[in-house]
């Protein structure tokens, strides 16, 4: 059977490169890249994307290259009581660049005046400040570092032209992500010793937008049978088959006049040019909060997907309790808004087509917990002066899931009930967790020492959680219970 390529898609358009995208994972391919494709199909944008590999060990770009930067998006689910099952080949990516081997090629893009837009999704862990050395010939490890050098290259090539800046849309699920990214880039530019005129140009010539994204993208099918069924339907093989739900929402805190440049709404996409805050509160606390709350609990209970968790009576009762009794009470939106949105989320979790892997949700799981769950947990404690049961149980489960047992090369591994699994978090966090757990010996004293060490890490949680009344005691209780259950 043929592999997806230009030979399969004989009428692929050739469009100028207008977008640089930091990241090439499932979500961006099933969300932003799919949206650009929809606009291109109707002749309203007429531009392509250059995808930049975000990490040194990325595996996506070689697959994209083998397929001439084509891939298939499949949208499956229930929408307005109708079954949706649609597939199409997405053509919006023109090429990809590995910045760790071809950094100068990335910088040359900054000199291209057709490039106007920058999108990114490097996860919550990627949108963080890290002190780095300026090495002009080498890509910085961090996304903000790469962006700072990219902007500096444009600044120099355009000789500071005030009309030469970019429209920048970070899609990381971090509050005020555009403001935060700009703040970090400005700090990095100081670290690199760049002139004050450059920072003034960043402020005046570039537009950093706060955004909120929403679509469940599960990516490549997990079973050989499902893969073969798709291939037989398509009559070609696709290593980057990207499966997601029909529902999508993109909120951008920018003027509606941006539709002249990015006509999302004109092609019927669910784009809101408005304040992110009211959408974010519901989406992050309920949809992302429940996802992050359940991933470690589900995995430790032997489940693999969100749907399996939802179909387990005991776990479903836990989720319903967490939603109604722990999340709802601390949200400031109206009861009706909460109820309507929560019902839509539950229906999306129950999508029979949606094999959303808990292990995928668990990527950078502790960073996600800090952003998506911890604020709700702390708000609940502040309001009711007691620790919420399910959210603290979830916290304990996440800490246990991310217990580092050993390293193989650069990869950390966890273990649970005889099963070994890779742990994906930033390296500093994993090294810290390995050290925190290394002297644990099943005694209550060592358990308290482990939890005390982890909770006091202000770099990890942005505050010393040992100062939160009774939280440590509750986490120790649930960790001890989980460990006892594992040996019974």
Automatic annotation (TrEMBL):
It catalyses: D-mannitol 1-phosphate + NAD(+) = beta-D-fructose 6-phosphate + NADH + H(+). PANTHER family: ALTRONATE OXIDOREDUCTASE-RELATED, MANNITOL-1-PHOSPHATE 5-DEHYDROGENASE. Residues 276-481 form the Mannitol dehydrogenase C-terminal domain. Keywords: NAD, Oxidoreductase. Gene3D superfamilies: N-(1-d-carboxylethyl)-l-norvaline Dehydrogenase, domain 2, NAD(P)-binding Rossmann-like Domain. It holds the Pfam family Mannitol_dh. One of its GO terms (cellular component) is cytosol. This is Mannitol dehydrogenase. It comes from the Bacteria.
């Amino acid at each position: 059977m043929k592999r997806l390529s230009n030979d399969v898609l004989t009428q692929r358009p050739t469009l100028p490169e207008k977008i640089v995208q930091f990241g090439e994972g499932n979500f961006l391919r099933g969300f932003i890249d799919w949206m650009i494709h929809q606009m291109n199909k109707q002749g309203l944008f007429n531009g392509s994307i250059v995808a930049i590999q975000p990490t040194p060990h990325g595996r996506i770009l070689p697959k994209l290259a083998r397929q001439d930067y084509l891939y298939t998006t499949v949208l499956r689910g229930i929408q307005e009581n109708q079954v949706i099952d649609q597939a199409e080949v997405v053509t919006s990516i023109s090429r990809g660049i590995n910045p760790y081997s071809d950094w100068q090629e990335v910088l040359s893009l900054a000199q291209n005046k057709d490039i106007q837009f920058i999108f990114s999704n490097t996860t919550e862990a990627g949108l963080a400040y890290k002190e780095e050395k300026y090495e002009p010939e080498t890509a910085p490890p961090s996304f903000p570092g790469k962006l700072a050098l990219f902007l500096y290259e444009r600044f120099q090539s355009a000789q500071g032209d005030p009309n030469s800046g970019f429209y920048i849309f970070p899609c990381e699920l971090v509050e005020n992500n555009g403001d935060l990214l700009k703040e970090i880039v400005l700090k990095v530019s100081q670290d690199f010793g760049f002139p004050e005129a450059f920072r003034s140009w960043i402020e005046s010539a570039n537009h950093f937008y706060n955004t909120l994204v929403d679509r469940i993208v599960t990516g490549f099918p997990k079973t050989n049978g499902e893969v073969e069924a798709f291939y037989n339907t398509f009559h070609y093989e696709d290593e980057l088959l990207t499966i997601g739900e029909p529902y999508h929402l993109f909120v951008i805190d920018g003027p509606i006049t941006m539709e002249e440049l990015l006509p999302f709404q004109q092609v019927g996409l669910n784009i809101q040019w408005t304040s992110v805050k009211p959408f974010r509160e519901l989406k992050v606390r309920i949809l992302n909060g429940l996802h992050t709350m359940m991933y470690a609990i589900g995995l430790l209970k032997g489940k693999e997907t969100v749907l399996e968790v939802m179909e387990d009576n005991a776990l479903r009762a836990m989720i319903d309790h967490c939603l109604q009794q722990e999340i709802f009470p601390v949200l400031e939106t109206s009861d009706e808004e909460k109820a309507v949105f929560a019902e839509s989320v539950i229906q999306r979790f129950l999508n029979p087509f949606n094999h959303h892997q808990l292990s995928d949700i668990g990527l950078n799981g502790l960073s996600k917990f800090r952003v998506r769950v911890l604020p709700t947990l702390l708000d609940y404690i502040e309001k009711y002066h007691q620790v919420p049961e399910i959210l603290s149980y979830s916290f304990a489960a996440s800490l246990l899931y991310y217990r580092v047992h050993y390293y193989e090369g650069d990869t950390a591994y966890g273990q649970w009930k005889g099963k070994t699994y890779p742990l994906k978090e930033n390296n500093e966090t994993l090294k810290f967790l390995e050290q925190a757990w290394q002297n644990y010996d099943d005694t209550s004293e060592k358990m308290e020492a482990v939890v005390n060490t982890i909770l006091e890490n202000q770099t990890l949680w942005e505050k010393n959680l040992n100062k939160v009344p009774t939280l440590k005691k509750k986490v120790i209780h649930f960790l001890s219970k989980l460990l006892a259950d594992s040996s019974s």
